[in-house]
């Protein structure tokens, strides 16, 4: 059991509701910063050492809060942005509690987990709990779009850490934490062809759409479920009118791979599609965004520690590997022991049925809090 008293699930849900009812789409820096400021004020009031990194490129700020202590810190990182646009609360997804489920945009991915991390750090400071190592908490603004501005501060904090905890949503009906994730990446493919009249001058044209279709089939052929590699092409665009040979076309490409070697192979094969031939030019921009979080001895040892703590809370904590990436991919790639999926149970990430099982807030929060108190 953690030394710190974190409160009941009812109490946690009541405060979490305030976070959920502040809509924070990734693309609205002011909205994300409003919630960040709320957390900053609470942490400052209990004595956290605060550093706020100004946002850039249209994204919000990054907040870094540190607790006193000596030695390599325990880092815990969560994002405040969501995939949901303004108006979602007033429309199809109001905050509501239906039995064991609490619904709302972003409640599962990942406001519940980020709130639990914030709450644990705040209460550790408020109650004067002595931790084995200092804690570094990061609250970030742009994970849902690939962490373009927060990756650097996350990696900087992780380089000096003894362990990294990521309170992304727990997985599946049993609330599994995550010991491995696929690497993720993407490309934008653009094709330039040559326009011509589709009837009178067909042979003078070079269809960018046809070239795109051929390239898409090659990308799709890279999917190998046995090797854990998937590709997906969407959205797709091209052409102007039915009677004009299309001079331009393009698409976005998503890929996932379980190891760095597989990711590098996929990247090389996609990049090999670029070039010029027969009046057509294929250009590719992109690459690997998040390296794989590969399951290894250090991550598994951290998992066994968390599982033992969960057992004292009265529940089993299974583990799993996932196809989606998180900020834990960055820290694990640096060789820092990383345990992911430590947020609340639930389901429906990025979907209208998104919800948490709110009665699990306290037991899940207790495991995260005890890890923060005792790791090192």
Automatic annotation (TrEMBL):
CDD domains found in the cross-reference section: M20_CPDG2 (cd03885)
Boundaries of every Peptidase M20 dimerisation domain copy: 179-276
Entry keyword Metal-binding: yes
Gene Ontology molecular-function annotations: hydrolase activity; metal ion binding
Pfam families: M20_dimer (PF07687), Peptidase_M20 (PF01546)
Keyword terms of this UniProt record: Hydrolase, Metal-binding
Active-site annotation: 81, 143 (proton acceptor)
The keyword Cell wall biogenesis/degradation is annotated on this UniProt entry: no
Domain of life per record: Bacteria
InterPro entries, per database record: Bact_exopeptidase_dim_dom (IPR036264), Pept_M20_glutamate_carboxypep (IPR017150), Peptidase_M20 (IPR002933), Peptidase_M20_dimer (IPR011650), Peptidase_M20A (IPR050072)
Protein name per its UniProtKB record: M20 family peptidase
